[in-house]
Each structure stands twice: as structure tokens, then as C-alpha cells.
Design goal:
Elements: E1 3-4, E2 21-25, E3 30-36, E4 43-47, H1 61-66, E5 70-74, E6 84-85, H2 93-106, E7 112-116, H3 119-130, E8 135-140, H4 154-165, H5 171-177, H6 185-192, H7 202-210, H8 220-230, E9 237-242, H9 252-258, E10 268-270, H10 277-299
Parallel strand pairs: 4-5, 4-7, 7-8, 8-9, 9-10
Antiparallel strand pairs: 1-6, 2-3, 3-5
Helix pairs in contact: 2-3, 3-8, 4-7, 5-6
Length: 300
């Protein structure tokens, strides 16, 4: 595998992102993360999706940290400050699950509160289902765990075709297109920062094609097995979807109706937020997570 690492100079002076870097070996690859807050604090794991990176959580990390939590926001392999593989063929759903599992194991994270969105949910929900003993609760926003047994929205099919065929793949503008907020140019540039040229974008190009869209997809069986775990998941499970995401709108209902731990939760609808609700309503979402954790702890 040919591995690239974005030069540190690309990340200098990014707006509202002055967090110290931490690197974790995940089987010969370096995965970057923000690790903020007290080392003995209860762990909140924030997993980003496509085509963002931990920069997406810059407005959520400080309030969670200041509430006393240890906040960990990794960059998936192929994104942010983490290593990037040059060939799309070197990325797979299973590989991403393995890398994130190794990350959790390397830091020996336990009693985890997981917040996940987009591809962060596809990966994070698998890791949680396969390592139940490490996770205390889950909050899911604008994401899911497809098995290929249901038709995908037309908006996703358009996105999948764009990622596969378009010679123009401007990641900062793609993030902008999936938010309600008009992002300053410097913020759009921050989302472009990890990708100095097209050869750094293989991971971002690969992701849409790795989503299971047919029943015999390579990831379908493992995702179905994860769903079986969630059918008996009694730990707290909260949905906090936004109201202006054309891809995942309404996707919270299946989780609310399937997961035992989702019953009697104060599920949240984030208003006036697009697909990247962390960008549109990061402060509000952080407050939701703090309340969710504190309420579920009191209830135990």
C-alpha cells in the first residue's frame, strides 16, 4: 500500500481548531485524533463522516470538554491528519471497522458514549455492536447502518455517481452544499486542507461506493449481524437527526422502533440543520449530548 500523510503546514491557522494532535497506530497506519479534557473523564467518542474530518466537531469539543468529559474525535483513515492510502481498492468497509476497533483498543476506551453521523455511524455502530462491553450509550445523528436490503434515496444515488465519475471533487464545497449555514471561505478551505491534490482523495472517493446498496454487498452480512445486536440493545440509545437532510430524513424512526434502549428516550429533532448538523448546530448538539449522558447516568 502506498501511504500519504498531509503536510502539517496545511493545518496551520485553521479557524477555531487549535487542538493538540494525538496519533495512534492502527496496524501500521497512523490515525490522528483530538483528545481533549481530563484523562479520567467519562469518554465521549465523536465519529465524523464523508468527506469531513475532526474539524467538523470544533464547536462541540469545547463545551463537552468543559463539562468534564474526555472528548476523543479521530480522523478516519483517508481523512484529516490521518494517513491516506493512494488506491481506492485499499479501502473497504471491513478495513475501516478494523482500523477503528484497533483505535478503541489501543487507547483502551471503555464506558464510551458514542456520537456518530454519516459514515461515522456506519463504522461506529458496527464497532459498538461488535464490542458491546466498551460502550455505555449511543447517540445517532443523520446516519444509519444499511444492509442493502432497502432501496437508497435518489439523492444518495446521485452522490454516489458524482463521487465515482466526476473529475471535479471539491470536498470543502461538498461540505458546504450539505449545510444550511453559509460557511466562510476559511472554513471551506479547512475542509479542503487535508487534500493537497487528487491523489489524497482516494478515501473520500471510495466511501460512497462502499455503502451497501444490494443484499449481497460484501458488508451486508456483518451489518445484518450488527442489527441483531441492536434488536436487543438495552443501553441508552438516542436519535438526534436534523430536519433538512434529504438523505437521512426520517431514518431515526427505524432505530426508535427497533432498539430497546431507544424506548422512553427524549429523542431530538435538530431544526434548521442540514446533513452536517454538527456544522449547523454544533453548540445545540453538544448540549443534547451532555443532557443525554447526565440523564442516563442518573437513571442507572
Amino acid at each position: 500500500m502506498q501511504i500519504l500523510r498531509t503536510p502539517d503546514s496545511r493545518f496551520e491557522g485553521l479557524p477555531d481548531y487549535d487542538f493538540a494532535p494525538t496519533y495512534v497506530d492502527v496496524g501500521g497506519l497512523q490515525m490522528h485524533c483530538v483528545d481533549a479534557g481530563p484523562s479520567d473523564g467519562a469518554i465521549v467518542l465523536l465519529l465524523h463522516g464523508e468527506p469531513s474530518w475532526s474539524y467538523l466537531y470544533r464547536h462541540m469539543i469545547p463545551p463537552l470538554r468543559d463539562a468534564g468529559f474526555r472528548v476523543i474525535a479521530p480522523d478516519l483513515i483517508g481523512f484529516g491528519k490521518s494517513d491516506k492510502l493512494v488506491r481506492k481498492a485499499d479501502y473497504s468497509f471491513a478495513a475501516h471497522v478494523t482500523w477503528m476497533t484497533r483505535f478503541v483498543e489501543a487507547l483502551d476506551l471503555r464506558d464510551i458514549t458514542l456520537f456518530c453521523q454519516d459514515w461515522g455511524s456506519l463504522i461506529g455502530l458496527r464497532v459498538a455492536a461488535e464490542n458491546e462491553e466498551r460502550f455505555a450509550r449511543i447517540a445517532l445523528g443523520n446516519g444509519g447502518l444499511p444492509t442493502g436490503d432497502r432501496a437508497m434515496p435518489r439523492a444518495f444515488k446521485v452522490w454516489q455517481a458524482f463521487a465515482r465519475f466526476s473529475p471535479w471533487f471539491p470536498l470543502g464545497k461538498i461540505v458546504q452544499s450539505a449545510t444550511v449555514t453559509r460557511l466562510p471561505d476559511a472554513v471551506v478551505a479547512a475542509y479542503d486542507a487535508p487534500f493537497p491534490s487528487g491523489k489524497y482523495k482516494a478515501g473520500a472517493r471510495a466511501f460512497p461506493l462502499l455503502v451497501p446498496t444490494r443484499p449481497d454487498d460484501p458488508a451486508s452480512a456483518a451489518n445484518r449481524a450488527a442489527w441483531e445486536v441492536f434488536k436487543r440493545w438495552e443501553k441508552p440509545f438516542l436519535t438526534c437527526f436534523s430536519n433538512r437532510d434529504p438523505i437521512t430524513r426520517g431514518g431515526e424512526k427505524i432505530w426508535q422502533g427497533t432498539v430497546p434502549g431507544a424506548r422512553d428516550q427524549q429523542h431530538v429533532k435538530i431544526r434548521n440543520a442540514g446533513h452536517f448538523l454538527q456544522e449547523d448546530k454544533g453548540g445545540e448538539l453538544a448540549a443534547v449530548l451532555i443532557r443525554f449522558i447526565e440523564t442516563s447516568v442518573r437513571g442507572t
